[in-house]
Amino acid sequence: MNTKLASAPVGTTALRLDAVTKTYGTGETAVTALREMSIGLTRGTFTAVMGPSGSGKSTFLHCAAGLDRPTSGQVWLGDVELSGLREAKLTAVRRERVGFVFQAYNLMSALTVEQNVALVPRLSGQTVERAWVREVLERVGMGGHLDRRPAQLSGGQQQRVAIARALVNRPDVVLADEPTGALDTRTGRQVLELFRQLVGELGQTVLMVTHDPVAASYADSVVFLADGRFAGELHRPTAAQVSDRMTHLGEV
Questions:
Q1: Percent residues over pLDDT 70 in the chain
Q2: 233 partner at 20 to 30 Å CA-CA among 60, 148, 162, 250?
Q3: pLDDT digits over 22-71, tens only?
């Protein structure tokens, strides 16, 4: 059985941003969403990103994923520098080495659970390892629902399938954007416990943007952004500590 999801040993860097700045527009209408942002994610860790609306969270995630090119600075995915790649190569790297989990599950309604997960390697031009697809689904608790379609699943079950889809190519990092935002409290916590399990047992690297202090408290560390800049970090905090830090962001 293949028990390895991460593509390098725990302790090396999965993702790194070096002095990344992102500006939209030019001249008087220019808006700088991210300013000299530097951060490194060690493989096998779970990092949450928090900040008020307009703090740069989405831009941070988009630059980290290679969906947006920085105005200046560099983004490294393992040993590959993303911002220097041509678009076709960047798309291929992103598809093969980054897993995405969103608030909306984005499953194909006409496909079964198994087919939805197998679609990722198919689109990447890779051989579909049916045993691996089933193993990943088993690991996220969906091994008994292979032939069901999304409409036959609860929201939490659909998100578990989305997580399996993000894992099937054994990515360097899983990027999660408000993954529990559409779920009730109990189901959301089950999804967060699943992330925690994937990190702790399998060495997967997870970067999650969230507005929820309880969700952030499941992470190994919480990174705070304010006005597009790094604004502090907490390690293994409680939800109360995260909430308190959010309240005082930007204070001198």
A1: 94
A2: 162
A3: 999 998 899 999 999 999 999 999 999 999 999 999 999 999 999 999 99
| Residue-wise DSSP of the chain | -----SSS-BTBEEEEEEEEEEEES-GGG-EEEEEEEEEEEETT-EEEEE--TTSSHHHHHHHHHTSS--SEEEEEETTEEGGGS-HHHHHHHHHHHEEEEESS----TTS-HHHHHHHHHHHTT----HHHHHHHHHHTT-GGGTT--GGGS-HHHHHHHHHHHHHTT--SEEEEESTTTTS-HHHHHHHHHHHHHHHHHH---EEEE-S-HHHHTTSSEEEEEETTEEEEEEES--HHHHHHHHHTTT--
**Distance of alpha carbon 124 from the chain centroid:** 19
> Could you tell me how many residues make up the chain?
252
Q: Is the pTM of this model over 0.70?
A: yes
Closest CA to 204 of 81, 101, 75, 59: 101
Angle made by CA atoms 156, 146, 148, in degrees to the nearest 5: 70
- What residue has token string 């008087």? 28
On the question of pLDDT at 181 being above 80, the answer is yes
What does the pLDDT look like over 135-158, one tens digit per residue?
999 999 999 999 999 999 999 999
